[in-house]
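Bench log, entry 3. Co-assembly request; chain sequences pasted below exactly as received.
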Amino acid sequence: MPETAHVRVSHVTKRFGGVTAVDDVSFEVPKGSFATLLGPSGCGKTTTLRMIAGFYDPDLGDIEIGGRRVNNLPVHRRGTAMVFQDYALFPHMTVRDNVAYGLRVAHVSGPDRTRRVDETLAFVGLGGLGDRWPNQLSGGQQQRVAVARALVIQPQVLLLDEPLSNLDAKLREQLRVEMRILQRRLGMTFVYVTHDQEEALSLSDWIAVMNAGKVEQAGAPWEIYYHPRTAFLADFVGAVNLVPAQVTNLADGTATVSFGRHRAEVRRPEASLRAGQDVRLCVRPESFTIAPEGTVASGISLPGTIVRRAFLGDTMRYWVKVDDREWIVDQPDPGGSATLDGPVSLSLRPDRVHVIAE
Amino acid sequence: MRSLQREPALLLALLVVTALVFLFVVYPQLQVVLTPGPGGYVQYLQEGTWIGPLRNSIQLTLLSTTTAVVLGFVYAYAMVYSNMRWKPFFRLVGILPLLSPPFVVAAAYTLLFGARGVISYGVFGQSPNIYGLNGVWGVQTIAFFPFAYQLIADALSRSDPRMEQAARNLGAGSWRVFRTVTLPLSRPGLGAAILTTAIYILEDFGNPQLIGGSFYVLPTEAYSLISSFGEFTSAAAVSTILLLLALGLYLAKVRLDGGRSFVTISGRASSMPRPPVSAAVSRACFVACFALAGIILLVYGSLVVSALTLRFPNNLQFTTEHFQYVLSGTNGDALRNTLVFSGVAAAISAVFALFAGWLVQRGTWPGRRVLDLLLILPAAIPGIFFGLGYLLAFNQRWLDFVDRGWLIIIAFVFWNIPVGYQAAVAGLRQIDRSIDEAATSLGASSIRGFRDVVLPMLGGSLRVGFVTTFVRAVTTLSLVIFLFTPPTTTATIRIYQLVGDLNWGAATAYTVADIGMAIIALLVFAVLARGRIALGAARA
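Structure output for the full assembly:
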């Protein structure tokens, strides 16, 4: 990594009773980046975040922030601020007092404090709502107060624990965009926890997907999406076709795989492969082109029959039977009347097929 | 644990709280239990003088609890379920006994039914012997049924009206719904209410002391052993027997309700209407409540009349002489002592209990279960036992430089800790942990977060702790009977002494003044708390 690691988690383990919630997890978050811990509930992502914040002590391993080991620092000395899932606004304080709280604790006084609170409120689009009480605000506004309250103290690292999960879909999408813009503008390091893969993909510079207390894979969003290392990852992040196949031949940079009656030459993954090995092909539904039967197509061509379909608005999703298997195929921008039916021909670019060795 | 190491202030606070609890809860009680020593216990048990008081205590507790619970249940059912008129009036009358020392019922009973009683002698020309089991039984029934009513009403009103609506909707009549839905659902609450009433009655000292005559129960036996014979060993032994009984009842209660219920006088406005009962049932409820409220008013009315007349009942000429006597000199001092001791103790107890509750509820350090237990324990300790413990532990020469008022205050504080503590724990359960965490994550230390965020949000718990401790402190006799000195005499002690002197005019005037003072103090507090008062009261 070229940039300096701002948050470093090394070999951290946390047990609760007999359960290992976080199991030897290590990763580094570069300064100024938007890092996301993604995973299903119970995977250890929130526990990891809370260890960075200092709410839990790791049983093993070290946590460093800005090059300093923070294991022995109490929560309030770590230079982190947290945005909670349920916002945790102080109900007995106005919006302004909520936002000013961290500054008051830090003995930032009078006019300076007022100015910074006002600026931050304006920054998150809440100028003029300072005298309201938290229970007079909508969910989205409360969420912004929570963010403003954390931002105003200019933490080294902002920790966010599923901050959008209590909002409806439309608002979530809007705030997602705002959050990304905010982080870019501030250049602040964000560590974000979510179970929503779409959120993770759209927000992050870097994602660590966790499962059962371990980091399954970490990397850029598109790497996670297109080149998942395991079937769990492929399945967890978006809709996917996972097709059993066999490696028949290996060459420099490519691998030849056979599945059913078909055979294709695809990009060779980083994982070590040997000829004859059983693998799974991972193909995203949107990677296909679908056309009426008989259309000549380039790349891998698969003839099939449409079994079912679902209209999703921006796409039409088909379940297409190819030999004995159903494939999920998305047709973007389907248009009103262009619905396909019956026999079709699917085509697929070889570089869109990802091989998962298991 | 490591979180404590990282915050020395928090660690220090925890150590101080733990040390205080050990010093003022554990140490004095151990003094009592250990005073007789193995030989002392063996000898005392062989003497067999404890068998009578133990049998009497058990008998009396069974009888009085049964009658008090039956009356309390009728009152509670009427208040929660019926559509009778005058409900606000009945509610008010039901609260009145909680604000007064229970033994005033014994005083009123003597006035009304004693050898020269208004009713017994004045109406029927009889001079019955009211002393003994029957008298105490009757008096405790009247004194404690309002407590049973509060506890039972609380348990009944916890049942979800929606379930009753559903049962009615499925075709069950109101009595059937009550029998098949409400009662089974509130059985743990009712059981706890009955056991709590039993504890109050078992620990009652004033009533059996005033009209028990030669009928000794465990608390009065302990007291007379010390006051008449200076027998500390035997008194400690008999108090320990009492403690074991009370602990047994208390543990049974905790199994039922997790140690929650105290008498609460919250303005329990039921949010959803319950399905109506028939008009006939409502009428019957009204008659029953009217009769019970009448008895309560008879008790307090006779006190007021006696306080304002020259020589009740023979000379009914109006006078303020008794009140002048009560408010002057040492009598006035005792009244002021009660106000000051109770007020100071209530404030300290409420805040201390809240802080301790926060430490236990939010902490992750080892041994917090022990502290939790110790903070609830005093609820099971009879006042007479608690007072004796303080007497044995702190009535020392080298402590003479400390004003004895402080001893009483500290006894009030720690005897009442469970009320504030449980209110705090209940309040903290309503506040998500992330609220405290938000404060620390914004740079506040844990204790700062407690002060800025948790404390202001727990105003309700704080008020419950304050008011309940205040009321319990104002009305207790058993706790202070071993602890007062002439300059630190409290109102309940003075009333007790005046009744003993058969100075009825002054005794009743004093009682009225004491209750009046408590009511005024609570009203002032209610105004200060801007009407958001959740009265709570409990007694041991």
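Chain A touches chain B at residues 53-55, 57, 72-76, 80-82, 84-86, 88-92, 101-102, 105-106, 149-150, 153, 159 (CB under 8 Å). The first strand of chain A starts at residue 5 and ends at 16.
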